[in-house]
UniProtKB/TrEMBL annotation, chains A, B:
It comes from the Bacteria. This is PLP-dependent aminotransferase family protein. GO terms for molecular function: transaminase activity. Pfam families: Aminotran_1_2, GntR.
Amino acid sequence: MNRYQTVALAVGERIEQGLYRVGDRLPSIRQLCREFRVSVSTVQEAYRRLEERGVVEARPRSGYFVAARIAASALPSVSRPAQRPLDVSQWDQVLELVGESPSHDRLLRLGRGIPDLEAATLKPLLRRLSTLHRRAAAQDLNYDGLAGSLELRRQIARLATTSGCLLHPDDLLITTGCQEALSLSLRTLAGPGDVVAVDSPSFYGTMQILKAQGLKALEIPTDPQTGISLEALELALEQWPVKAIQVTPTCNNPLGYTMPEARKRALVALAQRFDVAIVEDDIYGDLAFATPRPRTIKSFDDDDRVLLCSAFSKTLVPGLRVGWIAPGRYRDQVLHMKYVSTGASATLPQLAVAEFVAHGHYERHLRQVVRQYQRQRDIMLGWVMRDFPPGTRVSDPQGGFLLWLELPDAIDCVRLNARLSEESLHIAPGSLFSASGKYRNCLRLNYAAPLTGKIEAAVKRIGETVASQLGEHAELLG
Amino acid sequence: MNRYQTVALAVGERIEQGLYRVGDRLPSIRQLCREFRVSVSTVQEAYRRLEERGVVEARPRSGYFVAARIAASALPSVSRPAQRPLDVSQWDQVLELVGESPSHDRLLRLGRGIPDLEAATLKPLLRRLSTLHRRAAAQDLNYDGLAGSLELRRQIARLATTSGCLLHPDDLLITTGCQEALSLSLRTLAGPGDVVAVDSPSFYGTMQILKAQGLKALEIPTDPQTGISLEALELALEQWPVKAIQVTPTCNNPLGYTMPEARKRALVALAQRFDVAIVEDDIYGDLAFATPRPRTIKSFDDDDRVLLCSAFSKTLVPGLRVGWIAPGRYRDQVLHMKYVSTGASATLPQLAVAEFVAHGHYERHLRQVVRQYQRQRDIMLGWVMRDFPPGTRVSDPQGGFLLWLELPDAIDCVRLNARLSEESLHIAPGSLFSASGKYRNCLRLNYAAPLTGKIEAAVKRIGETVASQLGEHAELLG
Ligand SMILES: Cc1ncc(COP(=O)(O)O)c(C=O)c1O
Ligand SMILES: Cc1ncc(COP(=O)(O)O)c(C=O)c1O
């Protein structure tokens, strides 16, 4: 790291930790020179970088201040979904997003949920995969036990303590990605016609499970900083025969918030009062910017009603398809569902991940990418605020690598995509994240991969295209 | 191969090809000496081996004759299941069979559906897996396209021509084993309370899908040589609102029969007349002893109503979890089900299999193991006829590596297992293969792995245990 990067990082971290708040004056250039024993030009460069990222702002003749990065007013609005059970649609759009392999893709898809696969700290995982496959005999490619590798379940149980969970390896089942974990959960808890309450917007993969299983989505208003509205949820539970509550409370996809602990605890209490199960999707939880990482809802679950679903798809790589579930009191049914769904999972990928975790590589990798994602969040935020038309609202992710934009009402992001595809660009339109095609004026962007000039130019083009669609709309009206 | 093995194999093959039929006199020792240019003792040894396997029998002073290996009367009876829609049970017993990884198992499980993993012809697959993983970058562990690797789908389409099927790679979707293919099919075709007609006995994995999905199994009488009774099926279709017909018509698990072509064709016609879909499980089809392998039902499917399900789990190894489906007219729905069930499948195992097939290793491996399984079928048959009490009926597998035994009525194979577990032995009890616990007096044995003295001794012990349970039963009655 250069000297100026060291300084910029240190100042950035102090802001992140709340030592300086929005509008606070930051140390002068002279102070930082003394503290870090560096030259004036180094500190100037550091501040310039922070300014570029939108973290600080220079005020002429007064010095540097913490920028009002995302003033509360610029956050996406609290969502107002339909609040009655709805059939899910939008499959065509989801297929357009996830149907093709990214390596065969002619579009630059800025909307997909893919982590940075170039991270050097992934190397030990590749080495382990290589060694295991080199040494493998065909016997190692026999059927595995249904619950999955004990070694891996041990490691996952150990990691879970970080999120406040005391799990025994037997409390865990390995799945084919988080998608299978969610699918098994919802199929265990509810059948055709049943109602599932979800935060909203909500991951399209879960919404499509509801659709495939004939379930109805009851979308609950959700705050972009604190998550699902407990008040609205309580009303909904009184009014509808809800079979399960499905939430992604930590580093939410797509909104990026982490529910405060008190609200997580209150959600468990509410579920207990109405005797409903909770399906908790924690796939981005280990990518929280805070340390230690936030607690899971599962960690407050004193009567085993939470089914905790996760995977290494966002923290490591998606293509090993290694996920897991801690199904609580539903273990037997979920194990049955797992058997009929795919049988036992592949063994060697599980062993590779288990060894990677056991040797401390997972935690090292997390430290590295979490810092990277946090830095890139700020850069991407800066670009969006610079390049998108006024009236654009943007999320303030507390972890993960996804940004949610709420554009002026006149914008339809499916139409936007059609326009963008002419320039080989693609975003994830907001309507995928709703049962009923709400959030048409919203979109999701990914800031995981190193933010090259190409991506900066792409963000700029998207901003310009939005602006031009707004212009056309105004003309139509005028 | 030794000289006597060459001779034994040649004579065995002529019998298999029908050049000599049961009861026919075989060439004299002198004739074979001339033909193969070997000594008398070599031919004697060859005949001794064939006799041991129960293929030929010596008649004093008359020579060698084709043995009435399995006289028709010793075949299992035509099944007589309940013929009304039933809820499936038996999960506990299935879990006992498949719950544990074979490598951690304290029992010698002679009932599991595992191929010979020691076959030398699998080596190129292991090499390819090793090379692919050594060369892999993390990008190769990104999400794959939903339909799966095009390379692999091309190879599967090419192989399908052997079974009379003209498929385009786009007609195929890669799945997580055959289990996922079956699960996607049945979930696409039917919902809770719906009726699915099945051959009977039927693979327990499929039966458990019905259970998990809340479907009812309508078990149709099935002939141990020609498969599902079309007459009974027709009556059932007239009487019940059947949503799908699920069959395993080639190298059936557990009965080993292959439906004659004419009956396969007639089954399609029947499905057309009643406008019902057919789910065809072909997982053992490439292991048929006949060459070319028998045609699939799918190959007669002129209006795209057959969903062909298969995998490399029995022909290569189970632990890669590479399966596929040709879903016909249901492609869009099955693709949706695939997405919500597990998302895209892992890429590298698909590529390894694709390369293995493309280089001709698959066909080479098949030739090798099919001959081995055919030989071992005869040996295992011989052991069973020698070591089991009179009244035991046994299937005559036309492919694959599974033998089905029908024991005298007094035997309950779940109780038998309890007794066998004291000697660290385990068989697959017949009741797993029925919705309602029929076939309690039946069991399944595996003859895939090289038939060592240990396995011979195990078969003997099982036979003795059956005999002793029969004795106890007779005493109780007496
Ligand atoms: C919130 C959330 N849950 C689950 C998944 C599915 O994860 P996996 O790829 O492990 O099946 C994703 C991936 O996009 C996700 O964003
Ligand atoms: C007839 C049949 N179908 C399907 C399967 C499941 O195959 P896979 O292991 O590929 O999921 C089996 C395996 O036991 C089987 O015997």
